[in-house]
Design goal:
Blueprint lengths: L2 H18 L40 E5 L4 E8 L4 E7 L15 E6 L4 E7 L12 E5 L10 E8 L2 E8 L10
Antiparallel strand pairs: 1-2, 2-3, 3-6, 4-5, 4-7, 5-6, 7-8
Amino acid sequence: MTTRTTVTIAAIIATLTLVTGCSKAPTPPPVAPKVATASDHGHSHEGHSGHSHGEGPNGGTLADWGGGKYHVEFTVDHDAKEAVVYVLGSDEKTPTAVEASDGKLLLTIREPAFQVELTARPLAGEADGKASRYGGTHESLGIVREFAGTISGEIGGTPFAGDFEEQPHGDHDHK
């Protein structure tokens, strides 16, 4: 090996050491909490992902919550910059009052990315800290568009999350 080759190899090793440094191995991402699934509640929704629930009883977009034990319905009023989420039973129609941790659910919208804390807004007859309706406001909800995201919360110590995606509507003005 010539002196020139040795110097070149040493320069390459020095450059790689400077570029990569002596960093530790990357820290793995945190593990997300286990979300209730169909098997957790004795309800089978085989092939559940990718199918559409259609429109909910309040004119919103439905999502499965806990393998069919519950469903959640996302509604939005762009003029009021407000989202209201309804917790429904397995039949996707019946309001089902639940006691959410701290009386709140979380709405996470993917695009544009933002979150809204939804507070309990009990319907008539709902009491004892339970509600089937949760709502909140955010400036970005005033954007007239189809939203997609996740509705999450903890009910009775069990975390629940459901993804939804609004579809374009041809029959109304998307308020």
